[in-house]
Structures are given as C-alpha cells and as structure tokens.
Amino acid sequence: MLNPRLTEELTDFPFARLNALIAPIAPPAHLSMINMSVGEPQGAMPAFARKIVAEEVDGWNRYPPNQGIPDLNLAIVEWLSRRYRLPKGLLDPTRHVMPTAGSKEGVYIISTVATPQQKGGARPVVALPNPFYQAYLGGAVLSGAEPLLVDADVRNGFLPDFLAIDEATWKRISVVYLCSPANPQGAIADIGYLQRLIDKCREHDAVLAVDECYAEIYNRDAPVGGLEAALAMDTTGGEDPFRNIVVFHSLSKRSNAAGLRSGFMAGDPRLVAMLLRWRTYGGPQIPFAVQKASAALWRDEAHPIETREWYRRNFRAAEQILHNRFAYYTPGGGFFLWLDVGDGEEATRRLWGEAHLKVLPGAYVCRETAGVNAARRYIRVALVHDEDTTREAMKRLATVL
Ligand SMILES: Cc1ncc(COP(=O)(O)O)c(C=O)c1O
Q1: Is any ligand 1 atom within 6 A of the Cβ of residue 213?
Q2: What is the pTM of this model?
Q3: Chain centre distance of CA 83
Q4: DSSP state of 313
Q5: Residues 175 and 110 sit within 8 Å (Cβ to Cβ)
Q6: How far is the centre of ligand 1, averaged over its atoms, from the C-alpha of 13 (Å)?
C-alpha cells in the first residue's frame, strides 16, 4: 500500500531523531529552555509586510495565478538584478523567475522536474552535499533517482568536491544540489567553484540547483550567486546564459518571514516552465496577500541590513564566549555555529540535561559514506535568538562542554 521510498528511504528525519534522543532526559527546571536546533529566525517580519497581509481583504475567493502576480515577479527580477549586478532587462519576469512557497518547494521539486526515467543508459543519480538540507534528499529519492552524497567536511573547506565524481557516474547525474552559503557549515562557494561546476553540469546536461536561501545573511562580503557566475562565463551571445542552472531564494531568512512561505526559483527558462507545469498539476499556489507582501519585502533593502546586524552581533557574542574552543570559526554566511565537540550526540544530550539547551547533532543532517558519518563530531547551533538570549546560551554551552 505504501511507497517504499517513503517508508524505507526517508525514515530518519533529524528533528524526530533529536526528540527521541532527548526524550528520556529531564532538563533542569530552573533554567528556561533555549531552542537552537531549528533554523527559524526569532526576529519579527517587518511591520509594513505584516500590514499588507492583515489588510488584504480581496482575493480570498479567487485562485492566485500559478506563475505569480506580475508585480511580484517584477520585484524579484529587480532584486536579482540589484543584488547580483545583472544587466537591466536581462531577466524576463515571465520566463526566468517563478515564486515558490518558500525555497523548500523549489529545491524539493527540481529533482522531479529534471530527472528522466533513465540517464546514460541507467538509473539517474542526484548528487547532493553531505551534510545537507533534508528536502534535497526527499526530492532526490522521490524523483526515483539514486542519491549520491558527497562529503563536505573540514578537509575541503566544507564545500563538496563534485568534480571528483567519476565520469561514468557523471553521465548518470541529472541534478546537482549546492547550498551556498551552506547549511550547516556556512561555507560560501566562490565564482571559480561555481563556474567549474556549471561547466561540468553542462557537459553532462545535468542541472545545477543552487540553494541560495542564506544569500542575504553574511558576515563580510555578499556571497556570489549562481546566476552571476553563469553570466560572467557566457560567451555564446545566443543561447540563454542561464541554461542548466537554477537558483532558489527565500524571504524566510532575509525577512524573518518563515511563516509567510515565500521564495522563488530563477534561471533556465526551460526549468522554470516545467516547474510551472508541475504546479498546474499538483503544486500549491501562493495566496495573493503573501505575494503582495513579498513584492514589498523584495523591494526593501533596509531591513536586510538590520537582519545581518542581528546575526553579526550574535556571532560576535559567540566568538567572545567560546573563543577558539570547539574549532570555533565565524562562518562566511548563514546563521549556524558548526562546532566540533568530539561526539555530537553526547554533547546534545548533555546540553539538554544540564543546560536546557536544544541543539542538533551534526550526524542527524548527514549520512554515512564508506561507513563513516562525516559530521558525527559536530553539533549545529542556530543563532536565531536575540543577542541576550544568545549570550546566555553560549555561557551555558561553554560551562557544560
Ligand atoms: C538550506 C535550506 N534550504 C531551504 C530551506 C527552506 O526554507 P524556506 O522554505 O522557508 O525558504 C531551509 C530552511 O531552513 C534551509 O536551511
């Protein structure tokens, strides 16, 4: 009756495992719980966007357009052009972009959109970084492809070395997922890395799917983007400069708007068209109110500066309190600490039992390759609270571990 891909291959969702791990442990009742296991920003969505949603009275009786309301698509194209210095008019709001219900919808479904029944005469392969965001694996497995997990650890600067995959396997690859800035390690792919990967994907007619949902949360320089990298290497002058590449963005982190469920996909028009086709058959449209608020959020450049400052204060606090313990480093982007604590599960249990701190064992967002879980020594700590809470959490962590 049930799909074995769900019952057998997607069984160990990280947060279910975490809850099972700490369930038998009683936390200290005199300390308030600080949950740093989930990447859910605790800041407020800007008031102007809340107002737009609250004041939307029309439209609830109508189906919103699958492809997005024109004003939102335009706001997205304008933002992409500003953020990545793309020439005005290059991106077509009707062909190059499509709003999605958060970036999760897009990163999940791109595997289905781009995976044929067979590739290179065999079952297709979807390559993803390890550790990884769970929707990549969900997307890969449910598309029918064989997932190929490529370790991204301290030895390769936390960026997966997809180019080291053998040629026979490359012939079967339909999709390569890359997360930059990466969840969980915060590593940022530079333009050379992106361009080499784009080249390789094109050589094998694979799709490069770059998850850029943390693109606006960075500590020093703004991370380069996949579209920018593709444009800079374009020499054809004829074909679409974004062929075989798509990027995914989100308001969840940029605008503290995880509950809004708003993001977009941009890139190769053939892929955008097929994502739209999938949506017309089975995907969710985005409510008018959400689309209107989203257009206003993409147009505003003031609040992301405040958002970045929020996280920078948290990283400064973490750095001061942890010093260089646990191989501390301030990541290039994103809002996670990726701490080498020796045994991630044991540290998680102790932090819960002795400090009422909820963190995530690194191993839970990573799978074993060659019998080893590359993230077993780590915990992931989401610095999503305000600075005072972050300081309190870091003090507890430094005391217990
Ligand atoms: C790497 C990564 N990609 C995508 C998402 C999905 O976020 P959303 O659907 O809210 O944009 C998340 C959420 O935490 C994430 O960490």
Answers
A1: yes
A2: 0.97
A3: 18
A4: H
A5: yes
A6: 15
Name residue 125's beta-bridge partners.
146, 173
> Whole-angstrom Cα distance, residue 297 to residue 316?
27
Cβ(177) to ligand 1 under 6 A?
no
- What pLDDT digit, counting tens, does each position of 204-247 carry? 999 999 999 999 999 999 999 999 999 998 766 667 899 999 99
Tokens of 167: 């040629």
Q: What is the C-alpha separation between 185 and 201, in angstroms, rounded?
A: 24
Distance from C-alpha of 142 to C-alpha of 268, rounded to nearest angstrom = 23
DSSP 30: T
Start-to-end CA span in the chain (Å): 47
CA of 170 to the centre of ligand 1 (A): 27
Tell me how far apart the alpha carbons of residues 294 and 317 are, in angstroms, rounded to a whole number.
31
Ligand 1 atom closest to residue 262's alpha carbon, by position in its atom list: 11
Determine the distance separating the centroid of ligand 1 and the alpha carbon of 70, expressed in angstroms. Answer: 24
Residue nearest to atom 6 of ligand 1 (CA): 104
In contact, 335 and 383? CB cutoff 8 Å: yes
Question: Is the confidence at residue 75, as pLDDT, over 80?
Answer: yes
Give the closest residue (by CA) to ligand 1 atom 15: 133
Among protein residues, the one with the nearest Cα to ligand 1's atom 5 is 104
